[in-house]
Design brief:
alpha/beta; globular
Length: 268
């Protein structure tokens, strides 16, 4: 990434910019000429792109048709922003993995580590809903919005600090324990409440709940070291095929899937 920035910096050292208007801070006019355009990009990337928040920085950059054309035409500029976003995601994922593997982490700590990282749940989600208390008496942990505008509820239970097993042997096969069933029951109750409040939520908040689905995140293979991780995952997958609108995953499987989406191999 430093090489890319250095490359942009070498294009023009003496080009000048117009100051940002006081009523529109962060907005710049692009001066004419190749050197001036390169210098504009250099200054924006050096001073206006916060690597900790590249998405917000990208919105600040794209403030005019000229800026859009410049970024669209410059492959290295696109690569730099993409690399910064991937770096941010990788750092957030690593922080989440530490919390997930912490044997003392509470559900609240897990929620804090997941907030703002909806990409971890897959490409079908476009953001998080602004409201968590959608139905009187219920507050969902993470309300996601799918690409079709429908709501997806994420219910968080403990990860490596979970007390008790996630699966048990029943007639020679591994099956989910009562606490997994209880967590799914809680998610189902949320769905029922959302279904019953569909009209109000659509009119007041613009949220569609008719097709609402849910995910339960619970446990970590380290909770049951005597059971192979694949056996735990397989038991939950079989269970998921028989439960409508609710999916159950361990935190480790969620994080591993997210790592694969970044092109990395999951940690053992």
């Amino acid at each position: 990434m430093n090489e890319l920035i250095a490359h942009f910096g070498s294009l023009s050292q003496d080009a000048r910019f117009l100051d940002a208007p006081e009523d529109r801070p962060g907005r710049y006019r692009v001066l004419r000429g190749r050197a001036e355009a390169a210098a504009w990009l250099e200054r924006v990337l050096r001073e206006r792109v916060d690597i900790e928040a590249p998405a917000e920085a990208a919105r600040r950059i794209v403030t005019s048709p000229e800026a859009v054309a410049l970024l669209a035409a410059d492959t290295e500029g696109q690569m730099l922003l993409r690399a910064a976003e991937l770096q941010r995601r990788a750092a957030g994922l690593e922080a989440l993995r530490r919390v997930v593997e912490d044997t003392t982490a509470s559900e609240h700590a897990l929620q804090r580590a997941l907030e703002g990282q909806y990409w971890i749940f897959g490409g079908r989600f476009v953001g998080e809903a602004a409201h968590r208390r959608l139905v009187p008496g219920d507050e969902v942990d993470i309300p996601l919005i799918r690409g079709d505008g429908a709501l997806h509820v994420v219910e968080l239970k403990r990860s490596a600090s979970l007390v008790g097993p996630m699966v048990k042997k029943h007639r020679g096969s591994w099956v989910p324990t009562a606490q997994v069933h209880d967590a799914v029951g809680q998610a189902v109750n949320y769905l029922v409440g959302l279904d019953e409040s569909r009209r109000r939520l659509r009119e007041e908040l613009g949220i569609e709940t008719r097709r609402t689905s849910a995910m339960v995140l619970i446990g970590h293979p380290s909770v049951q070291p005597s059971v192979p991780e694949e056996s735990i995952n397989e038991a939950l997958r079989i269970f998921n095929t028989h439960v409508n609108r609710v999916e159950v995953l361990t935190y480790k499987e969620l994080v591993d899937n997210a790592e694969r989406s970044l092109g990395s191999e999951p940690s053992l």
